[in-house]
Write a structure and sequence with these properties.
By secondary structure, the chain is an alpha/beta fold. The chain folds into 2 domains: 4-17 and 272-380, Lyase, Ornithine Decarboxylase, Chain A, domain 1 (Beta Barrel), CATH 2.40.37.10; 23-271, TIM Barrel, CATH 3.20.20. The protein has helices spanning 4-11, 22-37, 53-61, 71-79, 96-105, 115-128, 166-175, 196-214, 242-252, 267-270, 303-307, and strands at residues 17-20, 42-46, 65-68, 87-89, 109-112, 132-139, 161-162, 179-185, 221-223, 260-265, 274-285, 290-294, 313-315, 324-329, 338-345, 353-356, 377-380. The strands form 2 sheets. Strands 1, 11, 12, 13, 14, 15, 16 and 17 form an 8-stranded mixed β-sheet that branches. It has an 8-stranded parallel barrel with strand order 2-3-4-5-6-8-9-10, surrounded by 4 helices. Strand 3, helix 4 (71-79) and strand 4 form a beta-alpha-beta unit. The longest helix has 19 residues, at 196-214. It is elongated, with a radius of gyration of 22 Å. The two termini are 12 Å apart. Residues 41-271 form the Orn/DAP/Arg decarboxylase 2 N-terminal domain. Pfam families: Orn_Arg_deC_N, Orn_DAP_Arg_deC. Keywords: Amino-acid biosynthesis, Decarboxylase, Lyase, Lysine biosynthesis, Pyridoxal phosphate.
């Protein structure tokens, strides 16, 4: 990702910034498209992972759909050329304004997360003389074995409809004349690296589609969600295992004639394509701790502080062996503003360029203006 040429170029730029390696992004999208096409699967890009304009343009060019969790994400998808017939709108708290916008845009489907939401969409669609396609997001109570902050498929999570509520869903669907039932939707969490978890999900999907069909609701779409993880410890040339991921669903999902299988992948498509590049402002050497104080902090990349997430940290300016431990911290007036403690790095100096790797997912999209910080910029390999 980092050649001597672009490191020299970085020296001339204001930091911090997100550096996007568009070749890495293209290779990742190629791998996903090829692996999914083998099985006739449909992939929607989960826009919440990264909505950098150039990133969206490239993803759209590969023919993927868009998975959106806000009205503005729906708007951005359409503005960037995503086929509205491949746009799905999920989210546990859709406002009336957002629903109306999506109805006017004639998107493919709403992933609905409560009985009350079914009734709201039905009423808003009726007022427009429209019929809205809906899929029911079911909480399958499958443990994703990931960080508890990004687990979404357990009974205690706020997402989806619990299995014991399905009779109420069936009643509502029969009463809502302006809804068209398409299928069922699941999403059990994020940064899932144990593919065995998806076997358990397939078992639950098979059970749930049988339930709906037994109650008179033919299932056209099986939307399995996403959550496929990436290797944060090995960022170079380490594309997510799309082949293995899709093969699990091919092997264990009971796909009936005429059904479509949909996926909503975000992190796995974009995470490895970007790094946060920062500059050392100060080096503080203490008796017990050495600190590298960067010009980037939790306002530019909050994942380490919010999720205790690991990102590999590299000194781009020094080529000697790592021989010093540093706590790599930011400039924000919070003790939690620390990227990582006791990082093995070469002896580092003021002005050195530091890269925080695998920052293409949930990095730039979560930037804040806390401390009245300037908005972080973006630099591209192309």
């Amino acid at each position: 990702m980092f050649s001597k040429t672009n490191i020299n170029k970085f020296q001339e730029l204001d930091t911090p910034f997100y550096y996007y390696d568009m070749e890495v992004l293209r290779a990742t999208l190629d791998a996903c498209r090829d692996a999914s096409a083998k099985h006739g699967f449909h992939v929607h890009y989960a826009m919440k992972a990264n909505f950098n304009p150039k990133v969206l343009d490239m993803i759209q060019s590969f023919g993927f759909g868009a998975d959106c969790v806000s009205g503005n994400e729906v708007k951005a998808a359409i503005e960037h050329g995503f086929d509205k017939g491949k746009v799905v709108f999920a989210g546990v708290g859709k406002s009336d304004r957002e629903i109306n916008f999506a109805l006017d845009a004639d998107i493919f489907c709403f992933n609905v997360e409560s009985v009350q939401e079914l009734n709201i969409i039905d009423g808003l669609a009726a007022a427009k003389g429209k019929k809205a396609n809906v899929a029911i997001r079911i909480n399958p109570n499958v443990d994703a074995h990931t960080h508890h902050f990004i687990t979404t498929g357990l009974d205690e999570n706020k997402f989806g409809i619990n299995i014991w509520q399905l009779p109420d869903v069936a009643t509502a669907l029969r009463q809502c004349n302006n809804l068209q039932f398409l299928g069922i939707h699941f999403h059990i969490g994020s940064q899932i690296t144990d593919l065995e978890v998806y076997k358990s999900l397939c078992t639950r999907i098979n059970e749930m589609q049988d339930w709906f069909e037994d109650h008179g609701f033919p299932v056209k779409v099986l939307n399995t969600g996403g959550g496929l993880g990436v290797d944060y410890h090995n960022p170079d040339g380490n594309i997510a295992d799309f082949e293995g991921y899709f093969q699990v669903f091919k092997s264990f999902l009971n796909v009936k004639p005429g059904q479509e299988v949909h996926f909503e992948l975000g992190r796995a498509l974009v995470a490895q394509s970007a790094s946060l590049v920062s500059r050392v402002l100060y080096v503080k050497n203490g008796q017990k701790k050495n600190f590298l104080i960067l010009d980037a902090g939790m306002t530019e990349l909050i994942r380490p502080m919010l999720y205790q997430a690991y990102h590999q940290i590299e000194n781009l300016s020094q080529t000697s062996e790592a021989d010093t431990k540093y706590d790599v911290v930011g400039p924000i007036c919070e003790s939690t503003d620390c990227f990582q403690k006791d990082v093995d790095l070469p002896q580092s100096f003021r002005g050195d360029l530091i890269a925080v790797r695998t920052a293409g997912a949930y990095g730039e999209v979560m930037v804040s203006g806390y401390n009245l910080r300037d908005r972080v910029g973006s630099v591209y390999s192309e």
